[in-house]
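Aggregate trends can hide what the representation actually does to any particular protein. The sequence in question and its structure tokens are set out directly beneath this paragraph.
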Amino acid sequence: MRKVARFLLLPLLFFFIVAGVQPATAARYPTSMAALGDSITQATDVCCWYGNHPAQSWSTGNGRFDGITSHYERLLQLQPDIAGKNFNNSRSGAKASDLPRQAQAAVSQGAEYVTILIGANDVCTSSISGMTEVETFREHVNNALQTLDQMRPRPQVFVSSIPNIYQLWSVLKDNEVARLVWSAAQICQSMLASTNTPEMRQQVLDREIAFNAVLEQTCAQYKSCRTDGGAVFGYAFNASDVSRLDYFHPSLQGQANLAEVTWKAAW
């Protein structure tokens, strides 16, 4: 009789084990997400015509046949409940000063996962003197993270480092078309102006490195926040990763690689 009872209990025990494991595994993936940032996350000038192309965003994009597997598309495979809840709050031209407003939008959307890529416009200005001060940058980033940290439940937050602007200049400095576009459109003149000295470019690079340190340090203060550990800044992109429309923003390949590098760091 005791053997029969044990035999009957085995299927029941297996059911409870499986039932206990599966929901816990699914629960660790979010059912909604929001992206905060600037034109990189808007996929500005990514391909084919000028303007924003959020469907090709490394974070919340859902474009078909573009070669980009965004965070949203990867999460959709793991958590179908996230379908349609991919909010892109980034804004072209945004600086860190816009980040708290974007974070508040993510709160109103109930985002369970938030990506942040900000800072390129704080370092890429019309001149070196126009760059955002480091402590001002820190204040804005902290305010945004504090807003997200006050959500209940707290969202998972991923903070990317800023792509290496000096590397952009280094990769394309001998490209005559790129230099012409940079000058005509007055793109990131703090770094890309043809009249800049090596010392001036180093000054801009130093400010970007300081911004990335701020992102790392500030994120570390919050339990639900993690960074890429400098992976995006350290990524050795080449000319094919850069848009041929403005020679500044990521191309389709650049967005795909950005999605890959950041996904590995975030998940």
Summary: The first strand starts at residue 33 and ends at 37. Residues 1-24 have pLDDT under 50 and may be disordered. Strands lie at 33-37, 86-88, 113-117, 156-159, 225-227.
